[in-house]
Design a protein that fits this description.
CATH topology of the largest domain: Transferase(Phosphotransferase), domain 1
Helix content: 40-55%
CATH class of the largest domain: Mainly Alpha
Mean pLDDT: 81
Strand order of the largest sheet: 1-2-3-5-4
Strand content: 5-15%
Radius of gyration: 23 Å
Low-confidence stretches: 153-168, 276-281
Distance between the termini: 38 Å
Number of helices: 13
Structural class: alpha+beta
Number of strands: 9
Number of domains: 3
CATH superfamily of the largest domain: Transferase(Phosphotransferase) domain 1
CATH architecture of the largest domain: Orthogonal Bundle
Shape: globular
């Protein structure tokens, strides 16, 4: 593929690396983001790092729905284009700011911490350190599901290497061992993850200061303002296990994900968490979860698009029509329902809105596919 296959739209962000744009694939109208990295003024080692990001993203995004998905990449005019999944709701940091001080529901915090944790667990299972976990690098889909993104500074650890030494990351999320100039490993990612979870609980970072030296001193002490007691003891304990100053005493992401509290919430929220040692998490079920999430997002978007310009009476007719069509698809319509369906179509639906029937059919095809994958999950 190449640039000509995409229509380039709104700029979503930019930085020293280049910029990120929203793009539409011309062949099917699918929406993605494209990260453009200008290589011509980069030093050779920086160019290699940019290309390594592509290789890493291609490798680790496959098999885990909670990492921003790689689509493709290509090089044109010395600009590297990385096409990735589009997360419509932006980043978690912006989402938390948009709450204007109103705390997130407890179940939302648990959902985010599990989804981010699953993505991080997948990286660690493949011996990859993220090294820049922060709320601005967690992205939210249209269904408000979290994806861990921006692997630009991630590092692969070889089988013989347990620690990294390069100082890298965002200051507010640096671990004590990094602040103290010591080698670090996956536990530094866990510290940063704990900072993000704290942020979702409190809507502010656990460690802040007027300058970088004061910030490093504060992080080195490991002391932070306690999470309000309105939050559950289990949630406060989870954050404390991540923000343990001594990295040898700090929990691993696997220990966090397979603790009793996470298991209970995973069951409540129907989030699939791999068991320790599972390298594929049952490939068919992983694919099923991925497809259910993707289809759910598409269905929600199409449904919202269908009703956005309808007046209230027509919207009610549409809602009834959709419900009955859905029942018909499942073969559980009664004779009375059949009669009501005809009444809605031929008597109550305004002529100018008959196209809604075709929209319903389009959405129901996706519903049917979604049902298929849900059956696999429940088997």
């Amino acid at each position: 593929m190449a640039r000509a296959n995409y229509s380039f739209g709104q700029e979503l962000g930019h930085g020293s690396f280049g910029k990120v744009l929203r793009v539409h694939r011309k062949e099917d109208g699918a929406v993605f983001v494209c990260k453009q990295i200008d290589l011509k003024n980069m030093k050779s080692n920086a160019q290699e790092e940019a290309k390594a990001e592509v290789t890493l993203l291609r490798r680790v995004s496959t098999g885990c729905e909670h990492i921003v998905q790689y689509v493709e990449s290509f090089l044109e005019c010395n600009v590297l284009h990385i096409v990735m999944e589009y997360c419509e709701r932006g980043d978690l940091g912006g989402y938390l700011q948009s709450q204007h001080g109103v705390a997130l529901p407890e179940e939302t915090v648990w959902k985010f911490l599990m989804q981010i944790g699953i993505g991080l667990g997948w990286l660690h299972m493949h011996r990859v350190l993220h090294r820049d976990i922060k709320s601005a690098n967690v992205f939210l889909t249209g269904t408000i599901d979290a994806r861990l993104g921006d692997l630009g500074v991630a590092r692969m650890l070889s089988k013989d290497t347990c620690f990294a030494k390069t100082l890298i990351g965002t200051p507010y999320y640096l671990s004590p061992e990094i602040c103290d100039g010591k080698p670090y490993n996956d536990k530094s990612d866990v510290w940063a993850y704990g900072c993000v979870v704290y942020e979702t609980c409190v809507l502010q970072r656990p460690f802040e200061a007027a300058n970088i030296l004061a910030l490093q001193r504060r992080i080195s002490t490991g002391k932070y303002e306690p999470i309000p007691e309105a939050r559950s003891p289990e949630l406060r304990a989870l954050v404390a296990s991540c923000l343990e100053r001594d990295s040898s005493q700090r929990a691993s992401i696997s220990q966090i994900l397979h603790g009793p509290a996470v298991s209970e919430w995973a069951s409540k929220l129907q989030i699939l968490v791999a068991r320790p040692g599972e390298t594929s998490t049952e490939p068919t079920k992983v694919r099923a979860w991925k497809n259910v999430r993707r289809l759910g997002s598409q269905i929600s978007r199409l449904y919202d698009d269908a009703v956005k310009d309808l007046d209230e009476p027509t919207r009610d007719v549409w809602g009834n029509l959709y419900r009955l069509f859905r029942a018909k698809m499942c073969d559980d319509l009664t004779e009375e329902d059949e009669s009501e369906l005809e009444k809605h179509i031929f008597e109550e639906l305004p002529t100018e809105n008959t196209a809604l029937i075709f929209k319903a059919t389009e959405i129901l095809k996706l519903e049917h596919e979604c049902d298929h994958w849900n059956k696999i999950l429940s088997s």
